[in-house]
Amino acid sequence: MDPKIAEQGRKTLRSFMIPAIPDWGYLYFALAVTSAICYIFRCVFVHVDCGWSMTSLGGYALYMPLITLATLIIPTAVMSSGNSERIVGNFTGIGPILTGLFSGAALMLLSSAMHNLVVMLWTSLRIDMIFPAYFYRTELDSVPITLFEVLTDSIIPGIGIVLFFCGLLWSSFKLTDRTIGYFIIGLLFALYQLNIVDFAFMFVLGAWLAFVRTKSRNIWAPLACLIGMRITEIFFGSSLETVDITTIQTYSDIEMTYFYSSLPALFMGIVLLFFFMRILSDFYNSYSIGLHSNLTLAPEADDDDSGRHSILEGIRPPLIVGMIVWVIVWGFVIEGAHI
């Protein structure tokens, strides 16, 4: 064998080993592989009589923490290389965290509006509804049940989301690549959700969480966004109802009130998001000016580019393999292999 070909083969194999500081392409690959493994187990257990339904709240509460642990928390712990400050960030005051919490109201408006509009367009085209890979439905309504739901579908997954997407993945981009990084993080976040109906909103949500991470300089503000969105849904969800895709079959099953309420909600959500964007930018600028004016303080981890990879450095064999894995997993989701 040609020595150059052999060396190139060894170099390619080494690119799949866990690096000291991973680039975004490797993280795409790692998340694709762990998500695929979890999805396979999900498909297998659908056909196993476990005494509970996979789409029940109890079933969801059993497997979602395990999926969060396997796909987000453990990879972050393994690949963080002890850079906890770069992953978690620094506390910069209560202002950015409260702003993130209140921005959850705008996210809730966008979530309901975009979901309703996509479902109406989807059914109007007479395309069979494709359910998310992971979801639950419950008719129970009580304070303990609601608190249990928040813990199961918001807090536990939220911790994993901010650790991986707003910590590990976010910190892999250079300062000059942050804008492109928002797009990449939003795309991977939407891919990870395996929810084609809400894909557009998940992209917006992922990009917004990354933006909040930049302006707040910590992962607590993005987590506050997710919690704020869920709290808004609990208290004000009845004023902007979301189409339940498990109860409709055709376009005629959807009342036009969903359409008429979704358009102004979409507009209000966008306006509010720009408003919170301005506030977060003001917090960021004020903190940065104070930080840089004090020459006795060492630069924070967020401002240190050492070890970070450029966008082009992330385009390697692991990224290509990760993209192939995502295509295969999404192909099964679209074909309904999870049902």
Largest sheet: none
- Binned, the helix content reads 55-70%
pLDDT < 50 runs, ≥5 residues: none
Structural domains: how many: 1
Count of helical regions = 11
Please tell me the overall pLDDT: 85
Distance separating the two termini: 48 Å
Category from helices, strands and their pairing: mainly alpha
Q: Give the radius of gyration.
A: 21 Å
By DSSP, the count of extended strands is 0
The percent range for strand residues is under 5%
Looking at the structure, what is the overall shape? globular
* Run of helices and strands: HHHHHHHHHHH
Which tags fit this structure?
single chain; 339 residues; mainly alpha
What does this structure look like?
It is a single chain. The chain is an all-alpha fold and 339 residues long. It has one domain. Helix content is 67%, strand content 0%. It has 11 helices and no strands. The protein has helices at residues 3-14, 24-46, 57-79, 84-88, 94-124, 143-169, 178-193, 199-216, 220-236, 257-293, 317-335. Helix 5 packs antiparallel against helix 8. The longest helix has 37 residues, at 257-293. The mean pLDDT is 85.
